[in-house]
Amino acid sequence: MRPQVQNSAIPEAAVSTDFEVTERRFQARGLIILFLLSALVFFAFNYWHAGSQLPGVLVVMTALVLLFPALLLSSKEKLLVQAESLILWFALISSLIIGLTAGPTGGLSSAVAFPFLALHLKGRRRGLQWSMAWAIILFAGMQIAAQFSLASAQNERLLWQAGVALLFYIGIALMLNRAVGAGQNSDEAAAADQGNKEKLAYLEQIAYHDSLTGLPNRLCFIEILDKEISLAQERGHSLMLAHIRLQRMFENRSIIGVEASDRLICNIVATMTAAVGSRGVFARVRRDEFVCVYRQHSEEINATEIIKEILAFRLEYKIDDFAVQVSHTIGVASFPQHAQDAVTLLHKAGQAMLQAQFANQNLAFYDEKQEQHFVRSHMLFSKLQEALRKNGLSLHYQAQVDLRSGTIIAAEALMRWIDPISGPVSAAEFIPIAEKSGLIKPLTLWAMREAFGQLLRWRAEGLNLSVAINIPARCIMEGEVVDELRHLFRTCNLPAGSVILELTEAMFTDTPAALVQIVASLHKMGFRLSIDDFGAAQTSLSCLKDLKIDELKIDQVYIRGMANDGNSRAIVQSTIQLAHNLNLRAVAEGVENPRTEKLLQDMACDVGQGFYFCKPMPADVFSQWARAWQINKRAALSA
Ligand code: C2E
Ligand code: MG
Ligand code: MG
Known about the structure:
Layout: H1 12-48, H2 54-73, H3 80-111, H4 114-147, H5 156-208, H6 218-235, E1 239-246, H7 249-256, H8 258-276, E2 280-286, E3 289-295, H9 303-311, E4 316-319, E5 322-325, E6 328-335, H10 342-358, E7 363-365, H11 368-389, E8 393-402, E9 408-419, E10 423-425, H12 427-437, H13 440-460, E11 466-471, H14 473-476, H15 479-492, E12 499-504, H16 513-525, E13 528-534, H17 542-546, E14 551-554, H18 556-561, H19 566-581, E15 585-589, H20 594-602, E16 607-609, E17 617-618, H21 619-632, H22 634-638
Parallel strand pairs: 6-7, 9-11, 11-12, 12-13, 13-14, 14-15, 15-16
Antiparallel strand pairs: 1-3, 1-6, 2-3, 4-5, 8-9, 8-16, 8-17, 9-10
Helix pairs in contact: 1-2, 1-3, 2-3, 3-4, 4-5, 7-8, 11-12, 13-15
The protein binds ligand C2E and magnesium ion (MG) (2 copies).
One magnesium ion (MG) binds next to loops.
């Protein structure tokens, strides 16, 4: 849905008229008080000195009827115009009363101010209309008074002279009003008008533009995009919207400072806008996020070209003689393919950008399925948090079997989560979500404590096993995780080698010195260190040289395939030899059938793990199964 955006935005009243209104209200009230006092004085004068008391009574009554409501109306800004009209009505009626009762001379002498008042209160056009109405009413009134001999001194010549005089007063008032307008008010008005325009322009600028770069902001961009969409609809063309997020700007900011980082942003904007030129409109929608709509109304958009162009945005900038690298992630959505309106299109380009970020890529095109995946990931993330808080997770255990003796030597702890609504969620789905969101650290700490507890219980029951715990890449570098491992190992008083830490290999593409140290210290403490899924990701053999590890766990892709695939067999055999040459234990996971077990035994693989031996199971089921296995070995399997 499109938000309601006012066209050219700011209502004039909001900017300019506060002062004017106060001034006008002040004037109107002044006039009301003045007229009320004058009416009272007129009444008093009539009462004591004049022959007739009627004009005074009529004028006072008119004042009461018209000026009190005028006073009330003047308190409301919207009704001020009506209050001013009532003041004029009073002036008109009272001069008519005086004119009718005292004759043209009396009427005129008391009413000459009317045109000046009308022009002042109502402006030139409306003031002139009021004045003409005043002249006609007054002239007609005097005619009637003459007809019915209401006034004391009247003759035809005098009446016409009075009529001319009325027009004469209007003329003077008009000229004066114009002269004052030209000489003074018009200057002020022009200045005020100019000031208001500037104020408006300024307010519009800050409401619709980013103050640092001067680019349109989100609000403004939605309007622009709306227009582009209408135009594209009319002409039957497509549009492309790129959402660009500058990466690691927070780190840059903390190194180069806020001021330099602002300059950096301006440089980036200059580069990007120059690259896109007149074919696109840029906007800054968040601190480090920009959007650009490509408008190519004349021909079909060539997506590949545009993407090349975006990706070619300069990545290195010089700020204060320092070279700063800025990488960006781009999401692209297009009209009419992905959305029909501006807000949805903007949302989808943003989603595509998040998809790119999630997949560790520079660029992603909006993908409906990916979005569903993304939405599910978000949903699972919040539910997983809750599950961790509310004890909704458990560990299952899968046996690791010594392939020479057939005894169970260890159990790998594998996390399980059954969501009350969605049902069981596989570890392969929720562990990556936890890894990407940072939730993996509390999950790992929880799994470590659980697994240590279970190991103690098994040992107390006489089941002599090791336990293998999965520790993902980023966690082993966390002080808290390492400290907790040391603490648990010490307090549980476990023999060396009884806890295996399975480290995922992806982390070892390069081996930071800190990691080498941590692994060495854990090894020294008595932990067995294993590299999980060896051969799955980008394999870096350097980690085997640098890290003090104890075993290689060959990725199950090769193990599951080795029974039927010669290449897999060759890879497995070489890896086992590599492990042995490095004095490491070779562990094969994914053993699904006796043929694979036999092949592994022939290759002198040390340990096997897989569905052929057992599937992961809850701790109590596992201990029963393990006891039976230890007693009967193969008999338990075939039973
Ligand atoms: P992994 O550490 O390599 O664990 C082995 C996975 O392979 C387990 O899947 C296990 O059930 C499965 N598996 C074992 N033998 C066979 C077999 O013969 N055939 C087949 N098809 N699969 C077999 P699971 O439990 O779904 O775990 C998947 C991954 O999730 C694990 O791979 C591990 O990377 C991660 N994970 C599981 N539990 C935890 C945990 O507590 N902490 C961390 N950080 N990661 C965990
Ligand atoms: Mg593992
Ligand atoms: Mg594995």
